[in-house]
User: Which sequence fits this backbone?
């Protein structure tokens, strides 16, 4: 035996609307939750169904004191449907006019673009120009290192790096001096430790020679 099919949302909406139309009365939500099952709408879904009707202006809702009442009259629903119908008809008319305008615009744009030898030649020339442009753009990218702004940025980055390295070098010298002053008896052990971490006798500040960044470019 097949299981009974539940009501769809639209069917539930119709059932709840029928409750309002038959009685033409005002209801609290808890009252509607009791009446809903009599029409086949389970009480747990009554709230959502009624709210969907309120959202579509098919059911009115108002707070009186501390209570919220719901109601709907057939005449109100009819007026609402007529208003919706007029709105849709107006939108349809506007859409038709817009469609006509777009068709006319499309036909206008086609003028002068008919297939012809001259048009095909112009399109081919345009394609060649675009390809040449992309090739030149790619070639320019290869010479970016010669851009004055790029060179200056590289020089500034080198200067900042040099200053940072020398600050750390200064800190290391200061630390070595402090260790020598406070642990003179551990001189040999300290020297061995310095050598292990790369602080040898030739360890000193970094002095960069003046270099001009030049890259040969074939003309």
Assistant:
């Amino acid at each position: 035996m097949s299981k009974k099919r539940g009501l769809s949302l639209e069917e539930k909406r119709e059932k709840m609307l029928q409750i309002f139309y038959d009685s033409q009365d005002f209801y609290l939500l808890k009252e509607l939750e009791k009446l809903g099952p009599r029409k086949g709408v389970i009480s747990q879904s009554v709230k959502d169904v009624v709210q969907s009707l309120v959202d579509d202006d098919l059911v009115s809702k108002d707070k009186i004191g501390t209570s919220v009442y719901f109601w709907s009259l057939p005449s109100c629903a009819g007026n609402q449907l007529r208003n919706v119908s007029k709105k849709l008809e107006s939108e349809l008319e506007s859409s038709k006019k817009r469609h006509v305008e777009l068709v006319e615009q499309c036909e206008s744009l086609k003028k002068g673009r008919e297939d012809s030898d001259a048009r095909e030649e112009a399109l081919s020339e345009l394609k060649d120009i675009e390809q040449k442009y992309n090739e030149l753009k790619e070639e320019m990218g290869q010479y970016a290192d010669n851009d004055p702004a790029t060179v200056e940025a590289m020089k500034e980055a080198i200067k900042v790096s040099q200053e940072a390295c020398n600050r750390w070098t200064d800190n290391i010298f200061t630390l070595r001096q402090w260790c020598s002053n406070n642990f003179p008896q551990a001189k040999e052990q300290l020297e061995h430790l310095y050598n292990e971490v790369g602080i040898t006798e030739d360890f000193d500040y970094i002095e960069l020679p003046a270099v001009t960044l030049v890259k040969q470019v074939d003309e």
Notes: Helices lie at 9-23, 29-35, 43-55, 74-110, 117-142, 148-182, 187-196.
